[in-house]
Every structure is written in C-alpha cells, then in structure tokens.
Write a structure and sequence with these properties.
Layout lengths: L4 E2 L6 E2 L9 H10 L2 H10 L8 E5 L5 H9 L4 E6 L2 H14 L4 E4 L12 E7 L7 H14 E12 L9 H6 L2 H4 L4 H10 L3 E11 L2 E9 L1
Parallel strand pairs: 3-4, 3-6, 4-5, 6-7
Antiparallel strand pairs: 1-2, 7-9, 8-9
Length: 219
C-alpha cells in the first residue's frame, strides 16, 4: 500500500520517495544496491555541466543526486526541492556527512519558488511517476519557466508498463496506476506542450529496479 501524506502548510498530498515513510531509512540502501547511483551518474554525464552553473533537482528526496552533483562539480550552485520534510532532513544529514554545501527547500514542483530563467540545468530523478497527469503538466511548465534560455531539463524515470514490465522495486513501491502515465509518448507530449524544444528520449536501460528512460529537453 502506498501512503499519501498531507502537508500541514498547504494541505496538499504527496507520495513519499519510498512509497511509505517507514521505508525511508532503507530507501537509499535499496536503490543503491539496485543500481540507482550508476543510473544517476549517467543522467549527470549527459548534462555537460560547467563551472558556475546553477542547478536544480526537483523532487530531490534524500539528496543522493544533489550530493553526487556537488562532489563532481564543486564550483556549481546546487539546489534541491521536495515536499517531504523527513526526506529533506535526511538529505541535510547526508550532505553534512559528505561535507558538501547544498541548498534544500521544501515545496512542490508545480509551484517552484524561484525566479524566471534562474537555472542552467534542472534534473528530475525517479520522481515524475509520483505525479498525477495534471501535476505533470504544471511541473514541467514550471521547470521551463525557471530555466535560462538554452538551459536543459534532464529526466530519469521508470518507463510505463507498455514499454516493458516494471521491475521489482517499481512494483514494490508504486502502484501500476502511478506508472501508466510514464509512456514515452506521454512524457514527450508533456514536455512539448510546456514549450520545450528538442524534447527527446535519449536512452533506455533495463535495471534491477525496472526499465528506465532518460529524457532531455532544451529551453
């Protein structure tokens, strides 16, 4: 069973990164053992990050991608956003242990609290399937708004069932209903409708935690 959590501040619900809060302490270990770190590294390598870039991770969860980014590119400004205070608290602890400086903000992807054209790169890693169809469109439009001209959106997520059988972790943590909206055609349509140019699927991999797809779009 999945667990929808209501935020006290906005009375909005969200799906925790691990599906349920009780799985959160094990989430990083499980995903690491199943290849998530390597999957995220491939996502980052495609982004051609340069010194001085300002980078946003939408749905940053426990901060694994943010910490990886800051270690690889210490001369960048790295910002993470997530609605889950428990995940953010864990991200802060992990960043402290890694001795990296990252900015962590609580909020939703469709209400990004940042200025227009203020980021060079925006990432989303294993988060998009958490969103409803309406939230997907609003989130991608918000991402388009905060990207600088020529900035890039890079996304990694589970594929929808029509692109292959979901893997063990996908089935364990997320219902089939949550995965149905992640078909290649639907993802690319959402990006194009949000005003992105050159939206494309750039890779596909079969991992222990399911089939995953990589997408890139340019503002």
């Amino acid at each position: 069973m999945q667990e929808l959590v209501i935020t006290a501040r906005s009375q909005r619900t969200y799906l925790p990164a691990a599906g349920q809060d009780r799985f959160l302490p094990l989430y990083d270990l499980i995903t690491k053992l199943m290849g998530a770190d390597q999957a995220r590294r491939a996502l980052v390598d495609r982004a051609q990050i340069r010194s001085g870039h300002r980078i946003l991770d939408v749905g940053c969860g426990t901060g694994s991608l943010l910490i990886q980014l800051k270690r690889l590119y210490p001369e960048t400004e790295v910002v993470g956003l997530d609605p889950d205070p428990k995940a953010l608290a864990r991200a802060r602890r992990e960043a402290g242990r890694a001795a990296v400086s990252i900015q962590l903000d609580q909020g939703f992807g469709d209400e990004l609290p940042y200025r227009d054209a203020s980021f060079d790169r925006v990432f989303s890693s294993l988060m998009f399937h958490h969103l409803s169809a309406d939230e997907k469109g609003k989130t991608v439009r918000a991402i388009r708004r905060v990207l600088k001209p020529g900035g890039e959106f890079h996304m990694l997520d589970f594929e929808g069932p029509e692109n292959g059988a979901p893997g063990f972790l996908a089935r364990l943590l997320h219902s089939s209903e949550r995965l149905k909206g992640n078909s290649e055609s639907r993802v690319l349509s959402v990006m194009t409708e949000a005003g992105f140019g050159n939206a494309k699927k750039v890779d596909r991999r079969a991992m222990l935690f399911g089939h995953i797809a990589y997408y890139r779009a340019t503002a």
